[in-house]
Amino acid sequence: MPKKRSSAARSAARTAHVTSPALALDTDQQPDVGPAKRQWLWTTLRVAALAAAAATAYIARDSPHVLGLSSRSEDPPKSPSQNIGFMAQVLQKSQGQNICKPEGFVSDTYSDFDSVEALNHRVARPLDKLVHTKFFRTLKVDLYKPCQLWRTEGSCFQRDCIVQPLDASNVPAAWCAETVDQNSFGPFLGSFPRQRPEYTDKDFAIVNDETYGDGLWVDLVENPERFTGYAGAGANAVWMSIYQDNCFGVAPYLQDTAGGWGSQLVNIDGKSMPFVQPPHKRRELAPFLENLAEEDRGVTLPADVPREYRVFYRAVSGLHASVSTHICAEYFNATSEQWEPNLGCFISRIGAFPDRLQNMYFNFVLLTRAIQKMEPYIASYDYTTGVVKDDRAVQRLIPKVLKAVRKAGLVFDDSELFLGSDGHELKAEFKENFRNISRIMDCTGCEKCRLWGKTQTLGLATALKALFSYPDRAFRGRFTSLDFKRNEVVALITTYFQFSRSLDAIEMFRGMYQNIVTDWRASQASQLPDK
Fold first, then answer.
1. Does 156 participate in catalysis according to the annotation?
2. What is the pLDDT confidence band of residue 99, given thresholds at 50, 70 and 90?
3. Which of 370, 381, 377 is nearest to 462 (CA)?
4. Contact 83/358 with Cβ under 8 angstroms?
5. CB 89: neighbour CB atoms within 10 A?
6. Which is catalytic among the residues 161, 328, 345, 446?
């Protein structure tokens, strides 16, 4: 009679011989089977396992979520959307592009992208010199107006958030003179003046009269729009409110990292969001952008949105894109402590929302058309500051800009909007929503961001006011029916220059990407064995 083994010995035997839980039996209790029968058992188990795997794959193919699986990796690759194709085209663009392609035209305009860039090449230098003159660099802005829409988190006190004010002694007296007449007072002598309205029926924004009320005189050149470090929930709340509450319900899907003037390295939940790095191979760029953009989550505007709503949305979206582009073009590198362009920043902020890139071109066209319409008025405006050199420069530069803009021809037809029986009501709603964006800018916690947000909103609103509040004939003759403040003229030209800067930055980033591709190809060629 065989001797019984101890429990420790039996455990050791199981460890040594058992390879499957299904066969985890005590060896003392197993029947004594021969080699052929054991081989038959192993074969049966392997066939059963293969059959189970095949059934799992079949079920997962038809209904992947039944097993908690995702079919994303199994989906056939999508062809890049029009938006994504445009973004890739911007970064890969070469000379001789066929501008007759449908995607070659700026939506809702009569301009193609190449013509817009060509016009920018003609106006960029005179605009750059123009905004450096005393008339256009000096502006009064109410930076301390309280936010009326929600409770803000407080202000950004980082060095680059702070606006450096201009000494009042450097401002021409004529701009500061406050004119008060008898009608501005109440019925009793000595009572306080009546509060002047923030806007008129023709205004598309809150217009602060420089000769009246609160405000800080600033030098725009000394306070450039660029990276400030302002980020987080407060920064995102501004853009989220603009898109979600003021764009007539046509705004696209927004990521949590969509907004703000500051770093996209930190998300609103405090998590790190490193900038993306573009692929080295040009053929991989479109799929890379497709994945980044999350196009299937609603980035593109619906096709049936009324044109007036689209124009509103494009104006807001283009402003957002321009702001983001300026941040990425002048990004502070903490390692080198230098201001420098950041390609990864540009692709992260714009590549994820390529419609914004197209809308940046749209705004340049919109501003161009407004300046075309206002040409006689702008040409005859009094730009005197008392600084002889600057005054002469303005007299020389304004005609150059106007000539280039005039030669652009028909770029946008404002007479096609706000027609029909509901046109008047639609225009009133359009104005009120755009005015509300002025109010939202008061909720920005960064002084410099608030300065440029309010200035560029006023610039776009001035263009809209010229296009939709006055007929063409109002800009001919003596201009008696026109009501444009000095700060509106400054904001219009300054905003035109800001979008010109953005288009220049696009070409710069395009060159940076081309250098990446060229360097990668050179590195690959150097690794090839000599023949």
1. no
2. very low
3. 370
4. yes
5. 19
6. 446
